[in-house]
Amino acid sequence: NAGVTQTPKFQVLKTGQSMTLQCAQDMNHEYMSWYRQDPGMGLRLIHYSVGAGITDQGEVPNGYNVSRSTTEDFPLRLLSAAPSQTSVYFCASAQGLSYEQYFGPGTRLTVT
Amino acid sequence: AQSVTQLDSQVPVFEEAPVELRCNYSSSVSVYLFWYVQYPNQGLQLLLKYLSGSTLVKGINGFEAEFNKSQTSFHLRKPSVHISDTAEYFCAVQSTSYGKLTFGQGTILTVHP
To answer: Are B6 and B104 in contact (CB under 8 A)?
Structure first.
């Protein structure tokens, strides 16, 4: 089991560029989510999904899009990057609501 | 709506001393409670969770936490810390009826020799 994988590990973007952060899990988990981590602010939920074809907004969804076409993959799209999106992004998956969330290693994104 | 407040942003402690990391939460519905740990340059991993039943929950690496419903608290404790416990610790709350997990701001535990 690879668990939760994220690519890339590091990325530098210029303002206005777009990109997709990839997330995949091989545990057949229904629940997947994206967080951003900023110093002193903990982790904030961006978007989450409770199954293929079902997504919902979290606490800070603006500027990000998601889709869930398969159980395994949950990509996060930045349509037009802004410096405020400089952060570390974590993807997580879980078997269900009360279950442990398994986190990926993170993607460190810098927008200049 | 739900929120989590970790009362200490940094906690320095000497090796083999006891430690308590404080967490208060607010929610209008029933919740599950979690503590996660993040070692430098890594993702988060679960220390322990409270779903229901006994209010004293034991986790990995000798940590335990006590759920206090009247005080809406879920403090994390360890009777004797090691250098390897140096990390950032996050308290989190999740509604029992929908999927949003809300994290506190984090507490950096630094264990000195």
So the answer is: yes
